[in-house]
Specification:
Elements: H1 13-47, H2 53-81, H3 88-109
């Protein structure tokens, strides 16, 4: 079967841009997944009517520690993508960091 493309796949600018974006985000993707799970558990524990006040306070404190870690890694991410050409993948990861920060800030404000 003959290819209809005149240029090889690897010389395609879109392919190269996607590969470059994937290399930039690779160190952060797995961490984001585990942080998302932790944040959801902390939010549930902090707002649970079945948890004791001590458990809710502990969940808020753990949420604060996780928030600090995520903000630090968000800073690392922003430094890692500095100078990279714009790409949807890079924007998606930045938005994921923002959502996690927002979620954990809510956890710290749960009464």
């Amino acid at each position: 079967m003959q290819s209809t493309q005149s240029t090889p796949r690897r010389s395609n600018p879109g392919f190269a841009s996607r590969q470059r974006a994937n290399r930039a985000i690779r160190p952060f993707v797995a961490s984001l997944g585990s942080w998302n799970v932790k944040a959801a558990h902390l939010k549930a524990r902090a707002s649970s009517v079945y948890a004791t006040e001590e458990e809710r306070t502990l969940a808020r404190l753990e949420g604060g520690a996780l928030l600090a870690e995520i903000r630090h890694r968000q800073s690392d991410y922003l430094n890692a993508i500095k100078g990279e050409p714009p790409h949807d993948r890079l924007t998606d990861i930045a938005a994921t960091f923002e959502r996690l920060v927002d979620q954990l800030e809510q956890v710290s404000r749960i009464p």
